[in-house]
Design brief:
It is built from 27 helices and 22 strands. The chain has about 775 residues and is α/β, with parallel strands linked by helices. It has three domains: about 160 residues, Glycogen Phosphorylase B (Rossmann fold); about 180 residues, Glycogen Phosphorylase B (Rossmann fold), CATH 3.40.50.2000; about 375 residues, Glycosyltransferase. The strands form six sheets. Strands 3-2-1-4-5-6-7 form a seven-stranded parallel beta sheet, with helices on both faces. Helix 17 runs antiparallel to helix 18.
Amino acid sequence: MNRLQRIAFIGNHLPRRCGIATFTHDLHRAVADARPGLDTCVVAMNDRGADYDYSWPVRVQIRDDVVDDYVQTAKFLNRSGFDLVSLQHEYGIFGGPAGGYIVELLSRLEMPVVTTLHTVLPSPAPAQRAVMKQIIERSSKLIVMSERGREFLHTSHGVSPRDIDVIAHGIPDFPFLETIGTKKKLGFSGRTVILTFGLLSPSKGIETVIDAMPEIIGSCPNALYVVLGATHPNLLRDQGEAYRESLTERVKALGIEHHVTFLDQFVDQSTLLEFISMCDVYVTPYLNEAQMTSGTLAYSYGLGKAVVSTPYWHAKELLADGRGILVPFGDSSAIGTEISALLVNDVRRHAMRKRAYAASRSMIWSQVAKSYLATFERVLQPTITSPTDPNDHHGSATDRAVLPEVRTNHLLSMCDSTGLLQHAVHGIPDRSHGYCVDDNARALLVASTLAAFGETRLPETVTTRFAAFIQHAWNPDTRRFRNFMSYDRRWLEDQGSEDSHGRTLWALAVCGSTDGDQARRAWATSLFRTALPSVASFTSPRAWAFALLALDAYCPSNDQDVAAKRMRSDLADRLMTILGTKKPSGWSWFENVLAYDNARLPQALIQTGATMGSARYTAAGLRSLRWLMSQQSAPSGHFRPVGSDSFGKHNAAPEKFDQQPVEAAATISACLAAARVDREVNWGRAAMGAFDWFLGKNDLDVPLVDTATGSCRDGLHRDRPNENRGAESVVSYLLGLAEMRGYVQAGVITDRAGSPSSLALSA
């Protein structure tokens, strides 16, 4: 089993005064907090002649202009047995031409490197391009903080989008507050405050706001522009305080000394958050667009501030759709007009604040740390390959260079103000059959999975509808979830099946552990805890399996919940008991029949065994999955899911038809779970085979999905596909696709011998 146990972070670190130092400090702390017991350290970069009083976790220092320091650090990291290195890259913090000394370190490392690029240049100089090429080649994964960064890496550096993860700049989890209290504390009572924070340098465009202040004062006579931050160390070393002095002279010339104040200090994070909290408008007037990320912008946005900014790259993405205001570069008149308009319109300003705060919840450091850990874990996953048999005319999804993009058009078209409709006639939603909690729970699981794997998120309003449907489905009288609802919103039963209850618990647990919205996470966790005890009386093995998958998501973050841990052991033991019950020779399965969602049963044991450290559960899960895969393989070798004609037939080989998307999705999940713990079998190839079923590698050589819309046919009949495209089918496809994209980010990867591995799935 390949588990992440030791991580080293390389970058600047506090008390060095720069944004990268703050970022490295915050990222390390968030990752360490997210995974108690993880062994971590920081390798700190020192600039020329500087000496910093570091404390834990800095264990090694590199003088940026001393090549041997880079070499010795590589030896230290190798000798110490770190599993992975997280490198923070920014132009200017490493020594050598274009920062090339860092390659001396990277080229000697014996573990994977994940590089976070804080700047990506669309037109790098030749030396910069050469160094970046070497960094890319030595990195297992690249992380950028914006879609524009991904675009530049692809177009300017030729990096496959699969090798790039987009993870937002982290922000503190700070409450949404009004300004009165902090204004009083900081001495700004009675003033309307405009704030800019950061290391002072000419590129920040402070002059633009100063020149705009007379217009702002005309609309808001008590306006005060606060410029918080020390002069950039490099500028201070080369020019002293000449730039700051020029700004103060500009203020005097305009006669606005009472309306502009400079606070020459580098503040700690808690003080900075107080300053941001007390301002009415935050402004970033940078003078050019080449700013891939801005920590100060992210912080202000995350605290729910009304932001006015020039349209540099990060601001254009973050402030879109009414979450802030963009003004042209160097345009004092535009800045004055927009800030004035915000200050005199409380309704508009507060609406903008709320939009920004709500949209930023996925950026809090605890969520960003989960995304980083997910990337780290994927880098350390066992190799996943696809078949490359030259005689295989079907091909494979990964042989075709890339998996399909995630498209949610059809899923969204199946939703209305109540939730996700069950069925469709061809691609048209069929209202006559109404809704069910099964499909809305699967849809909430899709929303959480897309977010967890860094895909484009579903609209917040849609995700909230799925959650609201589940909440409404809860029947406190029966302590169970209702399942079926008519189109006129009448529940058709007091309680649904045990399986639908278990599946809903699974969606709640995943939502509670991964959702970007803090309030929705709290809701999901609370309802999960309320509904979990009912499972104790269940008799359905699939309900047990769904509940185990739910507990696998819930327990790591709720280690003190003794009842949940007891329930997990009890349910796993129940599956072990029925798997061990004597059955006819050659029937290594939990039941005497094969039905639906079959692969979820072995998946539940595999994941439970992995997280609990129980080799017994894991081995049983792998054994049953190997047997199931032997039943789901056509003579030609392609994936053939258990057909619904098999349901109810005891101890009989599965029927071919009708084949359902839900089986393919379950098989993908189970095989990828197996890939994490078993290197002896090429489970990655098995997962790809199941996914290729959607794309046409099936008994009829017919694609079941429309990759342009994300719709999926409801199944495969003996002679044709089912042309209806209902809810269960589309969510099954999207779940399978999201998982495959998460695990096949590097394209076709072969085994360590350099050739595709065979998949031995005999029982």
